[in-house]
Amino acid sequence: MTSIEVETPHGPARAELHCAEEGRAALLLGHGAGGGVHAPDLVAATRAATDAGVHVALVEQPYRVAGRKAPAPAKQLDAAWLAVVEDLGERWFADLPLIFGGRSSGARVACRTAEAGEAEAVLCLAFPLHPPGKPEKSRAAEIDAVETPVLVVQGERDAFGRPEPALHREVVLVAGDHSLKADVDAVHRATSEWLAKVLRLLD
């Protein structure tokens, strides 16, 4: 594991790199609004990816690196993420297909930036479709805009709702709530199976 800092328009971000033996692609994963890159579902997805021959970068947003708890505005999150994508794509993952992903807020960032960052696929762990109890404030447009393969791994009791399956979108329900802590093996399994399909498309 290697930890590096990456300059962004909103201060330094941090990337924790987990390299696979055979680098067939690279998966960049972002954290939730109030959590870090070592959330159980992110750890499970990292293990699934490296087992599949995919490098992983766990990306810590500048506000977290600076020690702030409140997340930055969406435009700042997206700009910082794309700066990290560009840097890692040149320095570490040259010529490799890039897959975006993250949990909760990080999944939203991955969806919003997928086109601009030329992501080949997007992994959404606990995508927060709407604030709890406010289905009228849907964020479906963010995930609906992604035209590459998408996997959503969602807790059956997630108070933030869940996206529906669609043409390029697979939705896997696992036991538990928004934290996805109840069955990390199911998160690992769903990620592994989906990555195998994505890698076949990329070959």
From TrEMBL:
SUPFAM superfamilies: alpha/beta-Hydrolases. Transmembrane segments: none annotated. Residues 24-183 form the KANL3/Tex30 alpha/beta hydrolase-like domain. InterPro entries: AB_hydrolase_fold, KANL3/Tex30_Abhydrolase, NSL3/Tex30. It holds the Pfam family Abhydrolase_11. This is KANL3/Tex30 alpha/beta hydrolase-like domain-containing protein.
